[in-house]
């Protein structure tokens, strides 16, 4: 797949995401019942076209993600995933793999985290979409956002690039019925 193809895919996803936000496209309805297999099965056509074994790669990541020890609760796994993502983002900048905001999308694509779309970003705030994310693409609407790894990655990479504290909130997710993940960025 070429960069031009990826840019076209991202453009199509952005258009759909904007229609979802405006209410022009029906969101996925909440699921009262879902199985582990529902959570492991991705919907990542771009990455599956790139490598038909992407489903195995994603399932391995998600097995870890959804294997949270009951004794520790969901919050503990959220913290672990956020911290791992933040560390990856910081190290990507420190090692020179990400040198600019534009490099974030390339790095995320190459590492198969997802298709990053920086919708807007200025000195105070921003909005980033991730399509086909490793954490949530294809999961049912379970009533909550689940992309703690991606949220941490964006916090780490942006804080390292901008040399400022960054707060990242996931405001839309496959887990809440959308077909994209959206993250609001705020700089301190």
UniProtKB/TrEMBL annotation:
Ranges for domain 4-vinyl reductase 4VR: 126-187
Highest taxon above the source species: Archaea
InterPro entries according to UniProt: NO_sig/Golgi_transp_ligand-bd, V4R
Pfam families: V4R
Protein name, per record: 4-vinyl reductase 4VR domain-containing protein
Taxonomic classification: Archaea, Thermoproteota, Thermoprotei, Thermofilales, Thermofilaceae
